[in-house]
Write a structure and sequence with these properties.
The protein is of the alpha/beta class and about 500 residues long. It contains 19 helices and ten strands. Strand 6, helix 11 and strand 7 form a beta-alpha-beta unit.
C-alpha cells in the first residue's frame, strides 16, 4: 500500500487556474467515487478549498496513483512530468496565467509520496501551509474532506487514520501555541483593539461614518463578535439606509455627528473627504456629556477623517490606518515565530504516524511469514506420516509438537527483530523481511498476498461510522484557506 498526494494550490497557480480543477461540495461524492473506481486506487480523499485542490490516495503503486490523478484532472502529461514539488514562489509574486499553464496547457501539480504525504497534510491542518499562516478555517475543511470521503465510502483504514491524526495534530498546534491568536486582517485588528478597550463587545454601539469597503468589513466583524447597535452616518442618505438595513441598524443624520458620538462606544470613520470630519471640540463635548465613558475611534480614511488631537482626550482611544498596520505587522511576525514551535510539534506527530504506518505494514509480513511456515510444517508432516503409516497417534502427536516447537524457535528471532524495527520506525526493515522470506504483501507487489487484510480499500460501515465520530471529535471547526510545497525540513529530517 502506497500513500500519495497530488494537488495544486495558491503558490503554484492563480485563481483562474485553480478554479478549473476545484471540486464543489455538491460534486464531491461522485468525484470521490469516480476517483476510487480508477485501477489500483483503494482509498481516496479530496481536499478542495478556494486555495487548493488535493487528492489523497492509497494505491498499489505510485504510478497507478499518478495515472488516476491524471485522468481525474484530465491532464496526465503534467503529472508525469513533475516528479517533485516545484519551488515555492514568493507569496507576493503574481503568477502569469500563460506561464502557469505552460506549453502543454497543463497546470503545475505537486506530488508527495509515502511519509511526505503525512508531513504535508499535518502542516495543512495546522495552518502552516496556508496563505495566511495560522488561519483557523482549514482545520474544519480537512475534517469536512474526511467526512465526505467516509460518507462516499472511499476512505478506508489508512486514509481515515491519516486524516484523524492530521486533525489531532492541527488541534494540538492551536492549543499549545499562539499561532492563531493574533489578528492578521485590519478588520480583525479593529476587533482586537475593541476587546482590549472594552473587554467584551456584547451590547456595544458602533457608529459608522462613511461607507468604505474596509470600514464595512470592520463593521461586519464587530457585529459578528457581539456589537448590538449599528448607527450609519453617510452623506448619501439612501446608502446609509441600505447599509444599516443589512445589520438591523439605523441610518442617522450625517450633519448631527456630535449627537451620535454621545451614544457610540466604537466609531469607525472612512469617508473620502479631503479634510477632518470629526474634530476635537466635537469629541470633547460628547465625552463630557457621556461622563468620559471610554470611546474607541478607528480612522480608516486617507486623508485622515479624525483630528489627531482627539487622541489626547481622556477616555478616547484613537487609531489610524498606520497604527492598525503596525499592530497587524507585529501579529504576523508573532505568528511566524509561533510557527517554529508548531513545526516541532508536527515533528513529533509525524513520527507517531510513521510508527503506526510501519506497524501496519509489518503485520501482514509477520502474518504471511507465520502462515507460510505453518503451511510448510503441515505439508512436510503429512508427507512424513504417509511414509510412516505404522506410527501410533501418540508418536504422531510427539512429532507434531517437536515440529511446531522448531518452527516457533526459527520464527522467534526474525519476528522479534521485525517488531523492534517497527518500534524504531524503520520501514526498510519490513520491506527487506518481505523480500528475504519471499512473502507477498500489499506494498511490495500491489497484489493481495496471504498477509493482506481483506478488502481494506473499502471501509466497512462500522469502521466508517467510528472514523466519522473520531473525525468529528478531532476536527471541531475553529474557524480560511489554505503556503509551501515541500514538507518542512525539520519534519523530513525526523523521518
Amino acid at each position: 500500500m502506497v500513500l500519495s498526494a497530488i494537488g495544486i494550490n495558491h503558490k503554484t497557480a492563480p485563481v483562474e487556474v485553480r478554479e478549473k480543477v476545484s471540486v464543489a461540495t455538491c460534486q464531491l461524492e461522485p468525484a470521490l467515487q469516480r476517483l476510487r473506481s480508477q485501477p489500483g486506487i483503494q482509498e481516496a480523499v479530496i481536499l478542495s478549498t478556494c486555495n487548493r485542490t488535493e487528492l489523497y490516495l492509497c494505491s498499489a503503486s505510485p504510478a497507478l496513483a499518478l495515472e488516476a490523478a491524471g485522468r481525474f484532472f484530465k491532464c496526465p502529461e503534467a503529472l508525469a512530468a513533475r516528479e517533485a514539488p516545484p519551488p515555492a514562489a514568493p507569496a507576493d509574486q503574481a503568477c502569469d496565467a500563460a506561464q502557469v499553464w505552460g506549453a502543454d496547457g497543463c497546470p503545475p501539480f505537486y506530488k508527495y509520496q509515502g511519509m511526505q504525504v503525512a508531513q504535508h497534510l499535518f502542516r495543512v491542518a495546522a495552518g502552516l501551509d496556508s496563505l495566511l499562516v495560522g488561519e483557523p478555517q482549514i482545520l474544519g475543511q480537512v475534517r469536512d474532506a474526511l467526512q465526505a470521503a467516509l460518507h462516499a465510502r472511499t476512505a478506508g483504514p489508512y486514509l481515515s487514520r491519516l486524516f484523524q491524526h492530521a486533525l489531532a495534530a492541527g488541534k494540538r498546534v492551536r492549543s499549545e501555541t499562539a499561532i492563531g491568536e493574533s489578528a492578521t486582517s485590519l478588520s480583525y485588528v479593529a476587533v482586537e483593539l475593541a476587546r482590549k478597550v472594552f473587554g467584551s463587545l456584547t451590547g456595544r454601539t458602533v457608529l459608522l461614518v462613511g461607507a468604505g469597503q474596509m470600514s464595512e468589513l470592520a463593521l461586519k466583524t464587530l457585529v459578528s463578535h457581539g456589537a448590538a447597535t449599528v448607527l450609519v452616518a453617510n452623506r448619501t442618505r439612501a446608502h446609509a439606509e441600505a447599509l444599516a438595513a443589512q445589520y438591523g441598524g439605523q441610518a442617522v443624520d450625517y450633519g448631527q455627528l456630535p449627537q451620535w458620538l454621545e451614544q457610540a462606544d466604537i466609531v469607525i470613520s472612512s469617508t473620502s473627504a479631503p479634510h477632518w470630519v470629526i474634530h476635537r471640540p466635537q469629541v470633547e463635548a460628547a465625552m463630557r456629556k457621556r461622563g468620559w465613558r471610554r470611546l474607541l475611534v478607528v480612522d480608516l480614511a486617507v486623508p485622515r477623517d479624525v483630528d489627531p488631537a482627539v487622541h489626547n482626550l481622556e477616555g478616547v482611544y484613537l487609531y489610524n490606518v498606520d497604527d492598525l498596520q503596525s499592530v497587524l505587522d507585529a501579529n504576523v511576525e508573532r505568528r511566524r515565530a509561533e510557527g517554529v514551535q508548531a513545526e516541532a510539534i508536527l515533528v513529533q506527530e509525524a513520527r507517531e504516524f510513521s510508527r503506526w504506518w510501519t506497524s501496519r505494514q509489518a503485520v501482514p509480513v509477520i502474518q504471511a511469514l507465520t502462515r507460510f511456515s505453518r503451511q510448510v510444517e503441515d505439508q512436510e508432516l503429512e508427507r512424513l506420516f504417509r511414509r510412516l503409516p505404522e506410527l501410533t497417534p501418540r508418536e504422531r502427536n510427539l512429532i507434531q509438537a517437536a515440529a511446531r516447537a522448531m518452527v516457533n524457535k526459527i520464527l522467534h528471532k526474525p519476528v522479534t527483530r521485525l517488531k523492534e524495527a517497527v518500534a524504531e520506525n524503520n520501514p526498510d526493515a519490513v520491506a527487506l523481511a518481505s523480500r528475504l522470506f519471499d512473502v507477498d504483501w500489499p506494498q511490495a507487489s500491489g497484489r493481495r498476498g496471504p498477509g493482506a487484510e481483506p478488502d481494506e480499500g473499502r471501509a466497512a460501515p462500522q469502521a466508517a461510522a467510528g472514523a466519522a465520530e473520531e473525525a468529528r471529535k478531532n476536527g471541531t471547526r475553529e474557524g480560511g484557506s489554505p503556503v509551501v510545497h515541500s514538507a518542512a525540513p525539520a519534519v523530513q529530517h525526523a523521518l
